[in-house]
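Let's practice the habit of predicting before peeking. Look at the sequence and jot down your guess about where helices and strands might fall. Then scroll down.
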Amino acid sequence: MSVLIVVPARYASTRFPGKPLAELTGATGKTRSLIERSWRAACAVNGVDRVVVATDDDRIKAASEAFGAEVVMTSETCANGTERCAEAHVALGGGYEVVVNLQGDAPLTPPWFIEDLINGLQAVEGMGLATPVLRCDGATLNSLLEDRRAGRVGGTTAVFGADHSALYFSKEVIPFQSGSYTDAEGTPVFHHVGVYAYRPDALLAYPTWPVGPLETLEGLEQLRFLENGRKILCVEVDARGREFWELNNPEDRPKIEEMMRKMGVE
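Done guessing? Here is the structure:
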């Protein structure tokens, strides 16, 4: 099986302009950009044939090539990471059996998340797309709820059926729950990890579909699959005691840096 990881990155983020070039300081005082740390996370995954950064911005291209990444330039018309991955796959000549989208704001993504994701997609015949979900403990859930109360989006949550096919994804905290949980206690809320593994036919079909109302309202690219009747497999992953967070807002930077220090990430 041939696997391509694409790290899509754009400069013009609404919530955090220039986000891929934002610098994060690790446990040893070493400073690296967000895009470099995300690329390094992709390179740590076992069983991958190729890792590329896909961007339409010359500043991101130059920075990525400076730390050794292969870069594929994509068009400015790409509306999201999935469209950018589809364009990059074509530009590279296609031929990969699985294309992984590791978005450039997820430097703390453990390699086993992606390895389990790829294995999960392979195990279900006919499934075109899979994505990881992580059960929230009480501390993570409370952090998500605090962000929403402050008017920030701290992360995306997912609900899925008995067959692990996604029912919905939202920037709100779903499903509704009225209970309270200790920091280490498991909760019924699943944090969506912003990584996708596609079979090429599903990936190439995606840009041909119109943007639907749910994708527009939530600003979540994966909802285009659900709005067009395609299933998404939710693969539950295990954090193994490791903290996970995505850099969505400038306020997330110190939180991620503190996590890196705790984990000893350079």
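How did you do? The chain has a mean pLDDT of 94.
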